[in-house]
Amino acid sequence: MSNYPHLFAPIRIRDVYVKNRIETAPLSPSGDVPFYTREAYEMYNQFAGGGAGIVTLGEAGVHSMTDHCHPTMPHLDDARILPSLIQTVDTVHKWGALASVELTHSGNRAWPIHLPEGGYVIGPSAMTNLYGAPVIEMDEDMMNMIAGAYAEAAYMAQFAGCDIVNIHGGHGWLIGQFLSDLDNHRTDKYGGVIENKARFPLMIADRIRRKCGEKLIIEFRLSGEEDTPGGITIDETVEFAGMLDGRVDIIHVSAATFHSTATAARMFPTVFYPRGCNVDNAARIKGAVRKSFVTVVGGLNDPAYMDSILAEGKTDFVAVGRQMIADPDWPSKARRGRADEIIKCIRCETCISAGFIPHVPFSSGVLRCSVNPAFGREYENTRREEKPEAPKKVLVAGGGPSGMEAAITAARRGHRVILCEKSDHLAANLDYAKQISFKQDIVTFLKSMSVNVQRTPNLELRLNTEVTEELIRAEKPDVLITACGAEPIVPPIPGIDRPIVHHITDLFRKNVHAGMKVVIIGGGLAGCEEGLAMAWGGRDVSIVEMKPELAKDAPFIYWKHLLTKLNESVRSYCSAKVLSIEENGVKIVDGGGEERLLEADTVLIAAGMRAASEKFDGWRGLAEDVIVTGDCRCSSKILEAMRSGYCAGMTI
Is residue 89 a part of any domain in this protein? Predict the structure, then answer.
């Protein structure tokens, strides 16, 4: 019996063969120009080569005069884009996958500074948008113009070889704005009840079909619910899906709206949502349609779970976004019975938050992934790990994420690698994740990293082995990679040596049991996550932070959702100064200048970590090359640890 038979079952849509039920969610690549760049070509090539059945190119605008929300967003009303689009589609087809492109219009969220001269902002109702620009209420002439623009864009995509166009009707873009009472305040035949609000969206689908004929596959992406008061409900969406049934070939079920920033945590589900948080909505929609197929998206990363929801008839396809970034080869690994080697997305939101303008200072234009250090380097190396001219002996000190990634990368390139970890298991410094319910994604990621370490040729793993000067002299490596982690920062607070005081890492390193009244000194990511977990466990938790905000180093979307959870469960004191630790608590001056005592039977220090490289400075003469990586180089997050380890292994 084949692995995951439902996930890898072929199917035909409009007599077009689809090799499996895996669709990549619309993803846009790194790049600095509004075209399908070499980076785009390589990224979509990875997705197709990794085994996806449908590869969806990210947002493409349809009408430049009224729609620009990202500075580098491609538009399919400019024929100059065709050469790069055709080449990108060709590389998807090379692997036997279907090529799709998401067609979108931002409507009242268009950013005027990116519109051409004479451009203007339109939407279902007049308003002032988030950039302070006036929004013109669309009349029927404008609706016909935009519906025609969608049809022309679809026709250009079809000309370029796209098998599918994905009409983006969700997330609070123009079509979703017509469907939602949050944006549609009309009293004419395009507002009010769902039949009226659906007129313009249906007009677009019908216009594309008339323009492009019967062969083109049409997918319609929608928000099953907008997850905010006054927004679209699942009942409305089920009714609308009945109107789409047979008009479009696939109904793609997502959630949430950019109208409310808080719902981004559902749109790109954070760790506080269950995997597959849109599956029940997709199942309701599938039960309401007879002719159209259904796709579901939303934090999916486990092939066994995907196979099960397909087997249960809750959906016909699964759409996967961030997991494709974390490991583009996951479909191939799953199909070949190597699912335990899949590097799974940890839902840190780094990739999504990087372009979340205007809520972050800049749109970086470059995708980064915490667990896939090669992502964003497509043009540089396209994940090809070139063989060295002469294999070297490499000794890696430290089995955390950086050390594991350095060892795997160097060994795959042909070097002879010894990876030493002083504990009895890899990534011991991240054991804290095992005791926090919403950090289990990290636990799963580390398990797969450990599997890959053990299965990589040319790599010897030595546990319970601390790297010392004596060991280095005995092994005589050509290259020494230090990845020995970081050390806790202990601030000079009066009373810090009291018995009730522990560093936050002592909870897992020394099995310290916290009392019921806990004060955490330090409101960075570590302190906030541990504090939230303790509060959910029934403890009374207070967090003291000297900066104006908690956990500001977290990626934006995760940060917003984390703050929501913290506000529900813990007390926080920002812009506060700790005066002393007393026998019964912590004396502080709060942000308003008031001195107060926070009662506690346990005080946890979470003031950060510092690089631990000084004690390794004496190793520099013991190998031809010494490379310092991860927290040993600079205390940071998994993203930086993985990338520095990857670079160490790649540059030997």
Answer: yes
Distances (CA, A) of 597 to 17, 159, 515, 521, 592: 68, 70, 17, 13, 14
Residue 233 and residue 359 share a domain: yes
At 72 the pLDDT is 81
Alpha-carbon gap, residue 172 to 174, rounded angstroms:
7
* Residue 465, pLDDT score: 97
CATH for 163: 3.20.20.70
Cβ atoms of 400 and 445 closer than 8 Å: no
d(CA 145, CA 151): 10
Q: pLDDT band at 379, cuts 50/70/90?
A: low
Asked whether 299 and 323 are in contact (CB, 8 A), the reply is: no
Cβ-Cβ contacts under 8 Å for 454 (sequence gap 6 or more): 461
Residue 329 phi/psi, 5-degree rounding, is: -90, 10
Please tell me whether residues 627 and 577 are part of one structural domain. no
Residue pLDDT, tens place only, 386-402:
678 899 999 999 999 99
Do 409 and 528 lie in one domain? The reply is: no
Enclosing domain of residue 529: 501-607
> What are the Cα distances from residue 85, in Å, to 34, 58, 90, 325?
11, 12, 9, 21
3-state secondary structure of 532: helix
Amino acid occupying residue 9 = A
Q: Which two tokens stand for residue 628?
A: 């310092």
Q: Tokens representing 215?
A: 């062969």
Q: Residues 6 or more apart from 216 whose CB is under 8 A from it? A: 14, 154, 158, 162, 163, 164, 165, 208, 209
Q: Please tell me whether residue 97 adopts helix, strand or coil conformation.
A: coil
Residues 355, 430 within the same domain: no
Residue pair 500/600 in contact (Cβ under 8 Å)? The answer is yes
**Distance (Å, whole) CA 373 – CA 358:** 26
Per-residue pLDDT tens over the stretch 297-333: 999 999 999 999 999 999 999 999 999 999 999 999 9
Dist CA 64 CA 105 (whole Å): 9
Q: Please state the pTM of the whole predicted model.
A: 0.92
- Number of residues written out for the chain: 652
- Report the alpha-carbon distance of residue 650 to residue 388 in Å, rounded: 9
The token pair at 201 is 């969206």
> Do 423 and 556 fall within a single domain?
no
Q: Are residues 528 and 544 in the same domain?
A: yes
* Same domain assignment for residues 108 and 227: yes
Which stretches does DSSP call E strand in 199-358? Answer: 217-223, 250-254, 293-297, 317-320
Indicate whether 488 belongs to any domain. Answer: no
By DSSP bridging, strand 317-320 and strand 540-544 are unpaired
DSSP single-letter state for residue 257: B
pLDDT digits (tens, 9 = 90+) for 9-45: 999 999 999 999 999 999 988 666 778 888 888 899 9
Q: Are 253 and 280 in contact (CB under 8 A)?
A: no
- 396: domain CATH number? 3.40.50.720
Please name which of 28, 29, 156, 24 lies closest in space to residue 83, comparing C-alpha atoms. 156
pLDDT on residue 385: 58
Q: What is the mean pLDDT of residues 212-233?
A: 97
DSSP assignment of 34-92: SS--HHHHHHHHHHHHTT-SEEEEEEEES-TTT---STT--BTT-GGGHHHHHHHHHHH
d(CA 572, CA 575): 10
User: Has residue 332 been placed in a domain?
Assistant: yes
The answer to whether residues 449 and 532 belong to one domain is no
Residue 495 domain-assigned (yes or no): no
